[in-house]
């Protein structure tokens, strides 16, 4: 391996961008060259002030200073534009996570990356991402069987946003929890048919606006279509101090379980699980490891879009293939 | 993808070979062409009698009838010879599992496979294999942390053989069990330092020879160096009927847990676990899935030895990359 560090850039400095900066500092073979922002660069306070902040308008000009650019924008509005645009100048990594739109996004990034000789690994993280890898391996190894994905206990950003839009709600958060009975059945190899309601419950912690009617708010939340109506939902009313003190973290996690029968009918259960104190902290750690893989593909002369399903595990490690065989096989 | 099935051969017809035959039957895109044996082919009773049985001496002659040959021999005596020898005629898969000798074995197979334009994926299974992948991903994503591997509850072939060599023992089996307290500490993110004794216990079920002294046998087992002296070992004496009735299965499993801190110090725990009713049944299912990957690499013009760490997950699935992105990401 080349001994000069991989030069990393970050585009976007929210939770994910801050997490990526900290994750890069943990890696032995990477150096953070700078952070691109759409805000006024002078307004951005980085954890490490020696790292330069640039306007995103300089992206084209700085292409030779960076080996891999980690895109830390959101999937709804940022990445559909930034992904294809930045792939013309950079080898990129992103965490695009709108599952239904991945094929379309893949295609738009792939076209640009191919045309400009770059590599883009997209939809990187844990779901989509590590969970996808485990779903794939489960069904490839045990073709006869069923795959289950459970999420939680974890803070759901989308559902938290939804309860904050309910009239009478001043603030609040929502946690998704797996139903332990269902998880136990699956782990025991029973392969149950589970409805949405049987797999997860939802728990809300809500601060009411002065004078708001708690019963009315609760009713509005638990009957909300798409978000809560199909689940057993519990609503707790708390004060703003408690919300700040006990619910400021962003924990998450979950399980992918493949329960199947091998050729002679023996029950076999594979499980991958995550228990995360910080969802953005972990996601950015995954992004940074895949930045190493992207750079190796680029160096090897490959071009175009990839997902985690296309990446050999060895490409994620700073160790040589020979060291990996000796130490980890 | 080409729609003609991948033509698979099996070399060796013990537990693993029989498991591979059953696993191939579960795959939509594979066909078992024949089984090579060192025994008299006429003496072999296959589950499916329509599959031909050939002498291993015909291996060179039948090279054009088979796309991928799955080597189902043992790691101690069979594979060190068969691996390099058969790689001159075939693209191969094997489950070589003597961890310390993998680099040497890799090198000997790699030389032959390269010289003859074949691909060999070796040391495939769950440990080495799927556990290795998870150890790698854990340390690549969370470089600050500790990796723990626990095995069991599972039947250990090597330790069962060891107790059967003790004077006075007519028959017996040995199970390895993880210490639940240790597993719980690791899952909770405590990153304990664990001695060999603190991680696993060993449980033996022994049938005594007529007139043998149970106390003497127990003492000989629990003090046996390398195998039992470093563990808390329990010895149960049972009769031959009970052994046959309750201990004929080959269950196994275990956990790989990575407990680490992402960049801002948040505790993150990744876990991969297996709960297997049949160890050889599952191992052969893994071998068969990797046979698909080997054939794709061969078709793509690659040559030489590989391990699971070199294989992109998508190569294991019969589905196209586009279908995988749509269905599993």
Describe the structure.
Two copies of one chain form a homodimer. The first copy, chain A, has 329 residues and is α/β, with parallel strands linked by helices. Chain A is built from eleven helices and 14 strands. Chain A has helices spanning 15-26, 79-86, 102-115, 130-141, 157-164, 180-187, 196-199, 214-222, 240-246, 279-299, 321-327, and strands at 6-11, 30-37, 53-55, 68-71, 91-94, 119-121, 145-151, 154-155, 169-178, 200-208, 232-237, 252-261, 267-276, 304-306. In chain A, the strands form three sheets. Chain A has a seven-stranded parallel β-sheet with strand order 3-2-1-4-5-6-14, with helices on both faces. In chain A, strands 8-9-10-11 form a four-stranded mixed β-sheet. In chain A, helix 1 (15-26) links the parallel strand 1 (6-11) and strand 2 (30-37). In chain A, helix 2 runs parallel beside helix 3 (102-115). The model of chain A has no long low-confidence stretch (mean pLDDT 96). At the A-B interface, helix 1, helix 3, helix 4, strand 13 and helix 10 of A face helix 1, helix 3, helix 4, strand 13 and helix 10 of B.
